Structure formats: structure tokens, C-alpha cells
Amino acid sequence: MVAQARGTSGDRRKWIIGIGAVVVVAALVIGGVIWTIADRNKTEGQVIDPGQTTSALTGDVTQKRDGVVVTVGKTGAKASIDVYADFLCPICGQFEKTYKSDIEQAVNDGKLQVRYHMVPLLNDRSSPPGYSLDSANAALAAADAGKFVQFHDALFANQPEEGKRGYDKAQLIDLGRNVGITDPAFAQTVNAGTYEQQLNSAFQQIENDPKLAQDFGGGQRGFGTPTVTANGSIVSWQDPDWLKKVTG
Known about the structure:
Blueprint lengths: L1 H39 L21 E5 L2 E5 L5 E7 L4 H19 L3 E7 L12 H14 L3 H10 L11 H10 L6 H8 L3 H12 L6 E4 L2 E3 L4 E4 L2 E2 L7 H6 L1
Parallel strand pairs: 3-4
Antiparallel strand pairs: 1-2, 2-4, 3-7, 5-6, 7-8
């Protein structure tokens, strides 16, 4: 009887320990899920930092939208480049971080014009999908208000992570206000997705342009971001001296 009682008590302890282990594992799983969701959605409700509301570019530098391309620079600049980028692309963010100051200096010196092509390459890589297109459309709306550079720089400085939540249209509109856009047409253009069809059409042409195709190794060839071209040829922007070579 004693042995039987001891056996029953031991089984009870094992049962209690087992239940406790299950509870701990369940708590860890639930906590992990909550953390994952929170991390994925960390841009929700966030105010995008506009940084300096005044651009580092001088007053005689123009910002002009032509279709879905925005040209930034001084009239008569002897060199020009085309930059193809996606606001969600992390390598594009690194490109901006590395070369932003040098490009601004070349533009201010009248040596360079930059033609910006904002492409929705990663439109399906945000959660929910659509941030690449929404941000590109909003940037063109900002160009209409003469604030493309400020808007562009703020989005890259506060870049969301690929695969996670981007910024919604309301947040993009707030950023526009915070960089000094007062024209109500900006919010209307963002909400209506006015330039989305043009952006998608231009992107299809870009993807199918053999002059913009690059080798990515492993037999893979195609268009990727960021891509920089000068005089119709792709520039190896990984070369630290690429800008000096372009501007001469």
C-alpha cells in the first residue's frame, strides 16, 4: 500500500510538471507570436520624421516632374544620371546613405542633374502589399508641390523593413504636410493613386529594357534596384569613384 501510494504521488508530480511545461511552452509561443506581429507592424501609427524641412540643395536647383520621372538639378549641368530605386529596397537605402551628400554637392555645384525613377519592384514584399507603389505615387505628388527631394530623403531615412509593414497613405500625407506641402491636391493625389497606372506601365517597360538588365550570378539576369545609368549605360555604383568618373 505504501509503495502504491508513493507511485501515485510521483505520477501526480510528473503530471503537474508536465502541465507546467506545456503552459510555459504555450506562453513562449504566444509571446513569440505577439512579438512577431508587433515587430512586423512597428510602423503602424508612427510619424515619419521629416528631418530637416529645408533641403541641402541650393535655391537655384529645380525639381521637376515629367511623367513618372523627377529631374533634380541646375540648367546646363554637364552630366546627368538616372537612378532607379524602390522606397522599400534596403540596398537602395544603403545607396542613399552612402552617396546622398556627394550627389547633393555635385548638383549644387552645377555638375550633375539626377533623373529619379521610383519603381514598385518590391510592391508585393511589404505586409500588406502595396507600399512601394503608394510611396512612389506620393513622391510624384510631392514633386508636383516642389518637395520631392525632402519627401524622398525622409522616406529613405525612415525606411521600413522589407517583408514588413510600410507606411499607409495617411502617414504619407502627414509626411507631406511635415515637409511643407500645403496644397490640398497632394492628399487627393495620394489617396486617389493618381500616378499608379503610369508607374506600373513605366515599370513594365523598365523590366523589359535589355539596357537595364544586369547579371546577378547563378545564371540570373534582369532588372534590379538600385540601378544607376549615365549616357545610356549602367554605372557600377559600388565603385567609390563612380560619381567622379561621371562628372569628370
